[in-house]
């Protein structure tokens, strides 16, 4: 009798704790440098993205979703650990600057708890297909961070290919810890990743799987590389070709889910690690419209606000547009909870569970009082509700270990600073392009957001001033290049 009532209480608790059915498979698509305005459902007039648009119609689309950083490494670290990059030392690197480069002594620390590690503990088969960018030494690779399987590149699609550095190897394509091709044949990447994802879906249809799919595309190259079937097909040059190939790839995954009867038991998330880069001198490039364009890798909305779509038929209502603030760090908490895992409580986690937003409960608000804009460890701004405050800076960081081509060889000691900038306040509801500074007329708002920024400075950190709750990056001596054996 006693056991019976305990059992009932447990059931009740479970029912209250998780209104969603059972734990879903997870496919988390994270594209590289894809702009807010690059998909038709976000306003693109040049790219054809019918599959992704349908995904949005069948699920929820976020309009105010932020990556935790405007550059690759730190954004990806944030997504996989639920933390602002400062928290685990992934905001900048002595040797590499703001993004990790080949043969780096740094990477994601082994003590960091990744989404894959938690899902693996929950019985998921975990795979990473695509661009890793959290360290290229064996101890930093996906197999050391909870992934059962890894197929992909270790850093940006141009490093060691059309951009050379001292001691950099030919672009390695990895399978787990082994180089299987070098230089990697980049025009085949999206197709090969996609086929592997389909294979994993079929093989693990009876169990639970987590596919983290950080696509190579559209990528960092001035001339992105699409598969042969897509080259020359779009109305936006090589850049557009890769976007349309991403749409095709997404379609292949959805088709396989359908064939295997897994559509209803799989949560598909589609997002980007940061906005489209500044166009430099290219004729064809990405679009961050209607957001403020990024001139450099700074805190313009175009750098950090990205598309995010989530589909889970029967569980997430179809056709919803959510205008609440959410971040890629939230995907950590949300997916951990859905998988029945536990968000670590021995450290600060910045992400929040956004299942209530997915469920589209009426009156459900963002769980974030504030979102902080950081670049290379410098606190640049804060958003709260509709307000965006850019803090006054004596020395705004404009480049971090990056030269004209995007890279230099002297890491964070090569910081470049711009001229002083005053405080600026924007109402993003009426001025999405950050055109009119209304700080003067809204002293109370400036005061409130300045206090929030001050809190972040103390707690998370600012340039040259580590916060109270931070941990170190992974560091090793004598890094080696990944080469064919
Ligand atoms: Ca990126």
What are the defining features of this structure?
4-stranded antiparallel sheet, alpha/beta, single chain, globular, Alkaline Phosphatase, subunit A, Arylsulfatase, C-terminal domain, 2 domains, 485 residues, binds calcium ion, disordered N terminus, 10 helices
What structural class is derived from the secondary structure elements? Answer: alpha/beta
Bound ions, cofactors and other small molecules, one mention each: calcium ion
Strand content: 15-25%
Number of domains: 2
Largest sheet entry: 10 strands, mixed
Cα(first) to Cα(last) distance is 64 Å
Total strand segments: 22
Uncertain stretches of 5 or more adjacent residues: 1-8, 10-19
What's the CATH superfamily of the largest domain, by name? Alkaline Phosphatase, subunit A
> What is the helix content?
10-25%
Q: Numbering strands along the chain, what is their spatial order in the largest sheet?
A: 8-7-6-5-9-1-10-11-2-12
Q: Can you tell me the CATH class of the largest domain?
A: Alpha Beta
Average predicted confidence as pLDDT:
92
Taken from the alpha-carbon principal axes, the silhouette is globular
């Amino acid at each position: 009798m006693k056991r019976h009532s305990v059992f009932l209480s447990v059931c009740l608790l479970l029912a209250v704790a998780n209104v969603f059915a059972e734990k879903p498979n997870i496919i988390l698509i994270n594209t590289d440098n894809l702009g807010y305005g690059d998909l038709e459902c976000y306003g693109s007039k040049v790219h054809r993205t019918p599959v992704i648009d349908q995904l949005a119609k069948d699920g929820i689309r976020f309009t105010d979703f932020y990556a935790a950083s405007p550059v690759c490494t730190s954004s990806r670290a944030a997504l996989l650990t639920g933390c602002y990059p400062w928290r685990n030392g992934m905001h900048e690197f002595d040797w590499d600057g703001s993004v990790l480069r080949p043969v780096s002594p740094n990477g994601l620390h082994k003590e960091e708890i990744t989404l894959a590690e938690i899902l693996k503990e929950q019985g998921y088969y975990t795979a990473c297909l695509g661009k890793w960018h959290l360290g290229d030494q064996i101890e930093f690779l996906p197999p050391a961070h909870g992934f059962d399987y890894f197929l992909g590149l270790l850093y940006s699609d141009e490093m060691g290919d059309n951009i050379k550095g001292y001691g950099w190897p030919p672009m390695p394509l990895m399978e787990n810890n082994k180089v299987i091709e070098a230089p990697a044949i980049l025009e085949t990447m999206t197709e090969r990743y996609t086929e592997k994802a389909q294979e994993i879906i079929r093989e693990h249809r009876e169990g639970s799987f987590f596919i983290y799919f950080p696509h190579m595309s559209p990528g960092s190259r001035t001339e992105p590389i699409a598969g042969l079937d897509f080259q020359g097909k779009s109305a936006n040059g090589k850049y557009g070709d890769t976007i349309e190939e991403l749409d095709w790839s997404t379609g292949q995954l959805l088709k396989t889910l359908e064939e295997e009867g897994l559509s209803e038991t799989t949560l598909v998330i589609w997002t980007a690690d940061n906005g489209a880069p500044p166009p430099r001198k290219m004729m064809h490039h990405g679009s961050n419209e209607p957001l403020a364009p990024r001139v450099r890798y700074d805190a313009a909305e175009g750098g950090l606000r990205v598309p995010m779509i989530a589909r889970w038929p029967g569980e997430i209502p179809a056709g919803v547009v959510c205008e609440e603030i959410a971040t890629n760090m939230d995907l950590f908490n949300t997916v951990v909870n859905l998988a029945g895992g536990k968000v670590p409580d021995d450290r600060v986690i910045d992400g929040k569970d956004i299942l209530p937003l997915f469920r589209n409960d009426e009156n459900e608000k963002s769980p974030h009082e504030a979102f902080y804009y950081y670049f290379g460890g410098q606190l640049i701004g804060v958003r709260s509700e509709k307000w965006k405050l850019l803090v006054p800076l004596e020395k705004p960081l404009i480049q971090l270990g990056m030269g004209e081509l995007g890279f230099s060889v002297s890491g964070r000691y090569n910081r470049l600073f711009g001229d002083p900038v005053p405080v600026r306040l924007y109402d993003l509801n009426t001025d999405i392009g950050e055109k009119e500074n209304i700080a003067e007329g809204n002293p109370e708002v400036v005061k409130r957001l300045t206090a929030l920024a001050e809190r972040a400075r103390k707690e998370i950190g600012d340039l040259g001033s580590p916060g109270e709750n931070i941990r170190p990056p992974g560091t090793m001596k004598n890094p080696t290049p990944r080469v064919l054996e």
